[in-house]
## 1
Amino acid sequence: MTLVRPGEPPVARTGPPAPSSPSAPAAGEDERVLLEGVRRGDPGAFDRLVTRYMRRAYAVAHRLLGNREDAEDLVQDAFLTVLARIGDFDASRPFSPWFFRILVNRGLNQRKARAVRHTDPIPEDAAARAHSPERQAEQAELRDRLRQALDALPERQRVIVELYEMEGFAGPEIAEILEISDGTVRWHLHEARRALRSALAVYDRKGG
Amino acid sequence: MMDELERDPLLSAALRDAAGPAPEPDWDALRGRIAARAELPLARRRAAVRAPARRAVRALLPLAAAAGIAGVAWTALTPRSPVLTPAERSEIDAAVREGLPDQVHLLLTGEAADAALLDVVDVRAPAERGG
């Protein structure tokens, strides 16, 4: 799936603040200077760029692929693709949406290419936080329902939910990453939320 | 605008809980692997940055060589009149006076008649034979 659409105007970040948003102002070294260093082949500049985006990239990659090894491979591929294509990057535009577009596109391609999806098991301590066996069972059921509901979403809705609800990206950022309009993001998110809340509503009725 | 869509903390928390936390990788190892795989592409980038400068130098070398050769030729072929300072001239005169018989000096200075040349020959011959 190719989502590159050159010439799209930069989208200003709006909406509720997301502390870990990839569009947050870059701390310290100016990102343009950093990218110019990468363009010249400076290993130090590339390493600083990797350090700056690595954690965020891994979180999104793991969200897309569901296991650590694949997520690490995807992060590596995304950074190497950045290096290969840095000459095409428009330095007047923000780096983050361009980078995450590469990562998400590659992640989605990998997800589609998989016949069987292997995912990391959910750690035991996630369930152990519950107070009672009944509560643990309820939460386990809730998780199953939500996972099923998430898996049942159309691909694009699922990605939007993963980026917006789970990774804290802003709507305009998602629009730029997926190269769709803000309105389309809103619509997909609305539809996805309705489906997911239905899953939760069943749980509420059973739990209430 | 997206602002109209409020975030739903409960739904977000439930989704995160359902998906479970992502296992932490070894960040240093991951960064190291990325750096290792990036070495060659980065080296290519550096070479690509240097290539135009090298091409410019290669293009300028023949021009510089031609300019050098032209300069040397011009310098060699331009007639130059020796310019002696008064001190140098008097030093040469003194050497001539001391090194040559008076007749030669008179001949060179135009003070002797042409016939005096024969006397010089007579004078020089024994001196050279003796030397």
Note: The interface with chain A takes residues 1-8, 11-12, 14-23, 25, 27, 30-31, 33-35, 37-39, 41-49 of chain B (CB under 8 Å).
## 2
Amino acid sequence: MTQHEVGPFAELLWRFGIVGLIGLGVWLVLRCGRVMLGNAAFAAIAAASTAALIARGTPAAVAILAGIVAAAVCGAIFGFAAARTGAAAFAIASLSLWAIELSVRAPTGDALHSFGSPAVVVAAAIAAGIGAWFYARSGSGRAAAAVGQDERAAQGVGIDPIRERLIAVTLGALLAGVAGSLSALYPGFDITAYRLHGDIAGLAAVVFGGVGSAFGPLLGAVLVAIAAVAPLTKEHAAAVNAVALLAATIVLPGGVLSIFWRAARR
Amino acid sequence: MIDVREAAVSFGGVKALDNVSIICSLGQIVGVVGPSGAGKSTLFDAISGRHPLVSGSISIGGATIDGMAPQVVARRGLARTYQEDRLFTSMTVLDNVFAGAHLVGAMHSEALARSVLESLGLRDRANAHVWELAPGERRRVALARAIASSAKALVLDEPLRSLDESELEVVRTVLRGIANESGGRAILISDRDVDAIAGLCDRVVALHAGKAIAHGTFDEVVRDVDVRDAYLGVEWRQ
């Protein structure tokens, strides 16, 4: 792990962007009625690919693009295998992606960090949020939501649930890939951070923010990022996350965004 | 046209549908009646690709759909409603109907969805969420979703349930209208209550224990001795 100094605000931005992108990927799959517990694995694949390519002298832009493509291809392969399974089986299958998170390695060094910018990752997360919002309102996005809400009724109007889930998993992996590729440039980059923590952070962003809109995971990512930069030990931060997740699920099942919806409706 | 020939469906050793044949041509409304457990929903599930046939065949518009997945059957021109409403609960009324119309293409689907909602008296409810609707409204939204698909074959499982008298009249008028519209549509409609479909159907098929025990006009079927013994009771409208 590199020990470059990163200011707390810059770290907050980095974490917001990375968690927001992974969370948006989780959100896309969740809309199709499936829980993805291993989306951070695609970020890890992208991070490792990008870091390895830059370390070998590949131009940063090409390395980032290659990392994103690698993540999306791996997502499509996983989606092809898992899209036809039921909800429980899909969640269990997604746990198998942890094997990737545990085994993947990536080089670090100044050559990488000179390209890193928190503004880029924040811009990527916001652009992805806007893109996901438009996708959700498109024909394909509505079809995906229909599958998530009533698969049988969706089939009855001609929607193929396997196709929609495959698209969602691939898009989710692509967004995680963007997070991963850009995170390889993060001065505090540590690929082991994706081991489980990345998945929990992504899931927490969706639960905290709310599933009703693409902006929910981004709002949740702000909260997760604030918690992450708080002066807590890793163990304490994990405990706070766990308690907050439980509390949000019980007290605020629609996420923080639902508070705004309710206020707007009044 | 919906053509069901000697269709049989089994669940383990139980014959849920036993050599049932029904033909519903374009422009026709055919009623399927029978008590709970008669096999009406099993028949509709088989037609929409939900249950595989043990024997027999089903075709839509002249093309056999045996063994096809439900979404493929839908793309071949069949739309349906269910005993339960099965609406997309977090969507608005318009989005639900829009989902039904998505095969029509984005260019025309919203206008189509709005026009179907208007015909069913739901224009003012287009932006309401499903959870805000009364049971009769939910039933009409489910029907609107099927109609908006523009499918030539409609399979409607108890679409008249939960409707009040004024809603019943609206729905009956719409169903007659779409059956007779340009080119026509073939409509199979089920109900446990034969009174509900009186005057609506061109022909009626009565099911009991998975078998078709009578078919003919509404009057012929309700006078049938087997139908009275198995379902209506001998004193029904004596």
Note: The CA atoms of residues 26 and 36 of chain A lie 6 Å apart.
## 3
Amino acid sequence: MITLTLKEAPTVPLEAELLSPDTIASLTIDEIRALPVHLGKRRRRVDDFFAVDGAPGDELEIRGDVGRVKWIGHGMTRGLVRIDGHAGMHLGSAMTGGAIEVSGNAGDWLGAEMSGGVIRVRGNAGGQVGAAYRGSLSGMTDGTILIDGSAGLEVGMRMKRGTILVGGPVRDFAGLQMKGGTIVLQSGAELRTGAWMNRGTIISLRPIPLLPTFSYAANYNPTFVRLYAKRLATLGYTLPYDERDGTYQRYTGDAAVPGRGEILVWQPHLM
Amino acid sequence: MLRIAGGTVYDPANGIDGVVTDLCIADGRLVAEADLPAGARTIDASGTIVMPGGVDVHTHVAGGALNFARGLVPENQRVSRKFLHGVDRRAGLGGMTPTTFATGYLYAGMGWTTVNEAAVPILSARHTHEELHDIPIVDKTTLVLMGNNEFVLDLLEAGETERAKDVVAWLVWAAKAYGVKAVNPGGVEAWKWGKNANTLHAPIEGYKTVTPAQIIASLAAVVDDLKLPHPVHLHCNNLGVPGNFATTIETMNVLQGHRAHLAHLQFHAYGGDDWSTMRSESARVAEAFSANKNLTADAGAVLFGDAVTITADGPWQHLLYQLTGRKWGNLDVENETGCGIVPYVYKDRNLVNAVQWAVGLELLLLVDDPWRIFLTTDHPNGGCFWRYPEIIQMLMNAEFRKEQVRTLPDKARQRIVLEDLDREYTLTEVAIITSAGPARSLGLTRKGHLGVGADADVTIYPVNPDHGFLFSYPRYVIKGGAIVVEEGDLRHVTEGREFIVRPACDDAIEDYIRPLFEKVYTMSFANYPVEMERLRRPEVIPCDRR
């Protein structure tokens, strides 16, 4: 495993898309130290900012507050990135495989347009988690993003497949223009959840304000939620599904598009 | 000073068909061997194919609409080819709507040396010329949009054709343009009322008597009267609509023998009544076109993959937007024209797209006279210009072409005739449709050939059995006597020229236009015409075409 320890936090964002298992796996320690990163328009070396130790391999640990370091794990296909601290924007964007773990918070565009792999953030995330970059037709097309804390605007915007789970509250426009996939909101969301969604599923375990263009369909306990619950249980998250505990209210929409997405709102039975 | 020694030369304009000979270049022109100064560098071209540099008769590379399109497709620019800056090279992006500098590098890198920007509103002519400055290497011409200009339409309604001619002449010079373009004549004007012009003989919205047919015939006559080097450049009505071949053939009749260039003919050769019954009518269009010797056309071929559709045809673009459900840009250019932008993906599994793909190739194969139909994709509408070699490969290799046809859905194959066509283009014919023909249609007498006195725009291709590959990577490209591409690398960046015309007009016409302009336009009249100083390296081509 290679360990990068932040020596001094950059004062402006540092662009470091080469900090990924795919790049470092075949390099020697000295080559990793010499990898280019961009500080503003200036080209610098990795070891200008990080102390590099360890044995080369496809595991990378980054220690320190890299909240201003962007694009870590961009396009990675395998291996592990562990960040002991906060991570910057575009973490794991366009990744196709492997795993990323963050002990602190992550910035905006976490896992944007990813198509595989798992990202796990213990703290909060910014906006546009798993989203489509401006202009793109679709956001994440597969993979899993798990956030223990809160998340910002436009979570899962235009996502097509895959799963996003957010433990804390989520801000406006979760699932904006969603085309597929699943978003699980363990603590609900603010306004306009599912606006313009075409397809896909948003599961909220708390009551949320709904757009008038979503219509109530039924109260039920869909079988697929049970499957999701089992999968999430292996990752350490709970999703209720048992009819003895409650039911899901199903709303369809967004009729403004018009779309055939669904929002499931968990309603526990009163004890 | 340069000698290109021992290449196999294809120069159809001078009747040279694969002859091994030397070419001599001095002061940016081709010269006789006796006039080549001593000590000239010699390029050993033995075993290569030498052709005049490519001429694109219809493309969209600069101006307000293209810039709008660039802004509308950031998702494409993120994944497009990057050009990094170097000593004499500027940074840029390739992709569906390349940036200015990259456009020059891409055209020259493919061996094309002259391009015709085919749709410039007078109001954004200044901007267009500014962008053309920044397209290096290639020479440029522009066509100005006139088919929906209210000054012209008002005069046609009043029956003042003589004054209309003066207005057209004044506007061409005001825009520092090279020719006249008409897009969906009358239809874009009707679009300002939320309508379109679907038939040629009905008065258009907002006018009592003016019909599309009248606009077409009048503009063609005016352009002939003004003796402009390039005939009226027509984007016919009902572009893209099933069954539009009848409109196209009727347009040919309406022209009554006047010269005209029919742009992107592929988009105007469909049969059927709706999208589900759409079929190719290339045979009938090609037959009518061949019979009308006053006409030239370009293919506007479609290639499968990403494209951005950009056209002044506002109503069509609104329809296309409704069909795709994606994004749509719409511009209203005051009293002159409109504009629409819709990103589009041509899919081989899609019946309509498969027919479109076939029709472009069918027209290129069915029109027997290569001097009258030219290679274009209506860049970026049917595909990007840097994909031209793919089309050349399909034209030169019938077996390869038929293989592609066989991968199409059966339903599509029943509606096209491409599978029955065995014609294969020769290298001479390729030189005609890519260079000699379009140069002749544009009236650029120093382009498209390699005779003494011609501009020294020469492309040297390696001989390679895979023709698509051959035309993608010329070994040398010489532009105006300077070697810009050497051993397949872009080595030297030069500046291109702009060709413009100054048709004769009554100077008093300005007194007629000024008060009208000041009444309806948002800018001041003094700022309307483009000053000569705005153009870099302009050259005025005389108006003496019969």
Note: The first strand of chain A starts at residue 2 and ends at 6.
